Amino acid sequence: MNLYSFLNSLGIANPTGTGWLAVIFTFILAWVVTYRFIPQVRTFALRVGWADQPNARRLNREPLPNAGGLAIYAGVIAALILATFLRPIVIEAVLAQVLTILLGGSMLVLVGFIDDQYGLPPLFRLLTQILASLLLIGSGTIIQLNFGTPIDPILSVLLTIIWVVGITNAVNLMDGMDGLAGGISFITAMSLLAVSAQFEARAAATLVLAAVAGSALGFLRHNFHPSHIIMGDAGAYFLGYVLAGTSILGNLKVTTLFALIPTVLFVLVPVLDTTQVFVRRLMVGKNPLSTPGKDHLHHRLLAWGFSQRHAAIILWAITLVSNWVAMRMQGMSGIMMLATTIGIVLLLSFTVWRRLRAVFRATKGIAR
């Protein structure tokens, strides 16, 4: 079997072109840039006091630098810029979609970073997220409802806003334990990447997802327990927004609510976690957005006796299974699903091994 036949068996759109090479290059570049940039960001963050203090939501017992989102963002932007120079995006629609996602993501990185360091009112953050959602809708990225009613356009806009804002906050709420949000974002981005790579019309999503997956993996190398740095609201908002936007890129058409199931399965763990947190907090009369607490899924696993590492891996595994089901429902071939799953597991295993080896060496050095 030659390379063309192998790529064709994986379902890669236009395997004879160089687009798939650009995707691989984008992934590797984002991975390396983020991985190498984080130590500098961490050092500077500690120097100027950009750190999360121990609180009711997080599990850290000492100040932890919270500027990791800047490194994630830098990795994505650097990779996409260089990839575009090497293989220019000549299709105006694709370029517009990429720029729209990056513009909305940039807005949320800025708002998230300011909130990380100084605090912003929940209403202001929500309005910014709605504005970023409208930016996607204005560019044609929308969940298009076709129920045959006169209010379908209005419902489509509302559902898209709810989807984008909901996933953005869901990923942020998952960022309460080392390695959790980064790992889930990486798995989701890789799965969505595998699906979008089958369609030339989703070239924008494919390129952006490659950068996001690589950047999330590079960040995870420093964030798996014990963490050196966290992504903060800036990183979580950015990852959540990009995943929400790329998951519906290309006008997701819905004729029944069941058509949304595959899309929801890609982000099932954040959706379930956020839903149960919202319901529980509302039942006791608390504001779900502004009330921190240890009532998330990972807190329950910790309460059952699992370590932070084991709790993260368990939720990663659940995410991988739900993404596998989602890929199957999207009509992906068995060999493509197998290749995607093996790739995710190998890359995560390598990253965790590297992190644990670094921790072991550091501990051994201190003991001496």
Question: Unreliable runs, pLDDT <50, ≥5 residues?
Answer: none
Total count of strands: 4
> How many domains, as an integer?
1
Number of helical regions = 14
Please write the string of helix (H) and strand (E) elements. HHEEHHHEHHHHEHHHHH
The main pleated sheet reads as: 2 strands, antiparallel
What separation lies between the terminal Cα atoms?
A: 53 Å
Give the integer mean of the pLDDT values: 86
Shape, principal axes of CA atoms: globular
Order of strands, main sheet, comes to: 1-2
> What is the rounded Rg?
20 Å
Percent helix: over 70%
Q: What percent of residues are in strands? A: under 5%
Helix/strand-derived category reads: mainly alpha
Cofactor: Mg(2+)
Pfam families: Glycos_transf_4
Membrane topology: Multi-pass membrane protein
Organism: Crinalium epipsammum PCC 9333
Give a short synopsis of this structure.
This protein has 368 residues and is mostly helical.
SSE layout and pairings?
Elements lengths: L2 H7 L9 H30 L2 E2 L11 E2 L2 H19 L5 H26 L4 H17 L4 E3 L6 H23 L5 H17 L6 H21 L8 H16 L4 E3 L6 H6 L1 H16 L13 H7 L4 H22 L4 H34 L1
Parallel strand pairs: 3-4
Antiparallel strand pairs: 1-2
Overall description:
It is found in: Cell membrane. The protein has one domain (3-367). It is 71% helix and 3% strand. The protein has 14 helices and four strands. A two-stranded antiparallel sheet has the order 1-2. Helix 5 (122-138) crosses helix 6, helix 8 packs antiparallel against helix 9 (232-247) and helix 8 packs parallel to helix 14. The longest helix has 34 residues, at 334-367. The protein is globular, with a radius of gyration of 20 Å. 46% of the residues are buried.
